[in-house]
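Continuing the batch. This is chain 6 of the set; chains 1 through 5 are on the previous pages. Same settings as before, nothing changed between runs. Recording input and output for traceability.
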Amino acid sequence: MVRINGAIFFGAVDHVQNSLQQIDEINPLQKSVLIVAGGISFVDVAGAEMLAQEARRRRKMGGGLYFYRCKDEIYKFLRKSDKLDEIGEGGFFPTMSNWIKPVYATLDPEICRSCKARIFSECHVHLPNGEPRSE
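Output for chain 6:
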C-alpha cells in the first residue's frame, strides 16, 4: 500500500513512477500495489499514461495496480483518456468498499503460506488461491 498526495502530471510522472518501481527494489516479490488515492488532486495525460504503463507492468509480473478512494473526477478523466481499460476498471475501490478480498486473491499463495504477519482476516482462513490454511 502506498499513498499518493498531489497531482500526477507531466512534471511529477518520473518521480511517481520511480517511487512505484522502488517498491520492487525493496521487495522484489511484491507484485501488487494498492494506491490510497484520496490525496490525488489531478491527473493529466502523461500521468494517466504512466498509471496505465505501471498497471500493465504489474500484470506482467503476475500482480496488479489498485486504487482505493480515487476521486470521481480522476476516475472520469482516466475513462475519458481511454486509460481506464488499460489500468483495469475492476481495480478501483470506492470509500468503505472491501478491497481486501479481490486484492488478496491476486497475492502469491506460496509467499502467504509462510507469512506469519496475517494482517487481513482472509489470511487466517485460506490462502489467496482458496486453499484452506493448514496451520
